[in-house]
Input
Amino acid sequence: MVTDSSSGFPLQKPTMELCSNPQFIVDGAKRTDICQGALGDCWLMAAIASLTLDNELLERVVPQGQSFTENYAGIFHFQFWQYGEWVDVVIDDQLPTKNGKLLFVHSAERFEFWSALLEKAYAKVNGSYEALSGGWATEGFEDFTGGIAESYELSKAPPHLFKLMQKALTLRSLMGCSISSSSQETETKTSLKLVKGHVYSVTGAEEVHSYGRLVQLVRIRNPWGRVEWIGPWSDNSNEWNSVQPEEKAKLFYSGEDGEFWMAYSDFIQQFSKLEICNLTPDALSSDTVSRWNYSQFEGDWRVGSTAGGCRKNKDTFCSNPQFVIKLEEEDDDPHDGENGCTILVGLMQKDFRKDRRFGREPNSIGFAIYKVPDEFKGHNNIHLGPDVLLHQPTAKSNTFTKLREVGERFKLPPGEYVIVPSTFEPHCNGSFILRVFTEKEAAASLMDLDISADVKKQYVSESDVDPHFKKLFNETAGNDSEVSVFELQKILDSVISKRTDVKTDGFSMETCRHIISLLDKDGSGKLGLVEFHILWIKIQKYLEVFKKHDTDKSGTMSSYEMRAAVKEAGFQLNNDVLQVITSRYANQQHAIDFDSFVDCLIRLEVHFKMFDVFNKKNTGKIELDIRQWLCLALN
Output
């Protein structure tokens, strides 16, 4: 729950001082309750106005039973969807005023305050009223419904957009539209009384018969509650005289309420952008309403492991998170007449407005979709590599954007597909929500490797040791014929320092202790001849793997190569573990030197070995008492 703190908000007055008999909601929440104030948040007003068209959606955001009389405690609460979850926001009833009147949103009924309090709660979630200045209606739509947004440039409107709008309305989607403008033109009116830079709600899409032909009409709502279109099919236009009375009665209403009809052909010419917010199944309780199938995933881009950037970054792109979706059924009654599977993909970066408020530049985000090759179908325990991902994708986001979300609609043939979300530049930390809507049931999941180890045990007897190696060991080990941790450090540093093809700042004492912990069979805390020989074989193998993945011959290995390198060494790891490895071993240039690589592999083998000891029932889970935990953690 978010609790109230009014610091940083404009000068506010308690509602009781603004009105002698304040009411929370009067005769239900209506579109006329949302009159924009001095704040440039018409995008938010359009979203709130659309919300009032659906009581079920409204009551989730504005819980019922709140008032200024019954059980009044000076606070109100609202609920907003924020990055994958619903958040309860509590505010007091003090509102910004100027000359005794509400400064921002207000109702036409001066004693009604639900819309002003809702705006304050939303400002609180985003850090301030100022943070709400400027935006897209889809952001408000999503935060009021948990839905997924898509947008269309009307100058490039697809041929079946009107049918799509009709279908969206049957799915109870919320829609907004706007006219692009320069900063100087914002809130100026066209000759036909449309407002530039202003966000309208789209509330209907119908066809009527006029002079024997079908005309497509769009109904639009101005959140100002006034200033209406005066062109064809407006409230008092002659076009309505050509419509049969019974058909006209279903659609026509004349009043200065900010809502009006216009021809679809005029709509795509006059307006610049259409935004649609498609609702999640849990937002709808009626069984008569069609529903989307819905999947949602949280993920991270982490520098050095999963922040691979776009496809132009060939060395790192494949390290990005991957998600698989299986499209098995084609759509029923497609609006565009084309067979296939409709899929909506939305990629949203978290904490967007909060980052902007602190001056942090948002990431430029996008995604690509690839067909899963036949040999990998039905398997989630894989991570696709360059042989698949560096080819042309099946589909992709139209652009990379610094907006909160990038979303696109696609029509794909049945099959399995992998979605790869990424930032445009590599090495950018960030967290994201990936959401996928389909018309038919479609299984979706994170595509990532299971964690496993396949480290071959080496069986060596003293007779297997080369006499020359045995002589060198005895010279180094001294009288006790065993190598201590201090002697081991000297040996490793001496050998590696002579090599020019790998970089190292020397083996740490900690690494040497891990080596002895793994290989010391008799508990002496030292390595005997056979144990040291096994270590030598491991080091040779590790060196071979390290050099293979040091693709630029720098003497270090990129942390983005760790997935493939540790797999070749016998360990299969997922993104979470790779992120921990990167933070532990990589330097600021995302490079790992040889001694760190050795320490990583030794520790992995130690921990897998320890897990197997405690995984007695082979369940993949272990239970430890405090003694066992401390011994394991301190090992």
The chain has four domains: 12-145, 148-278, 292-448, 462-634. Residues 1-8 have pLDDT under 50 and may be disordered.
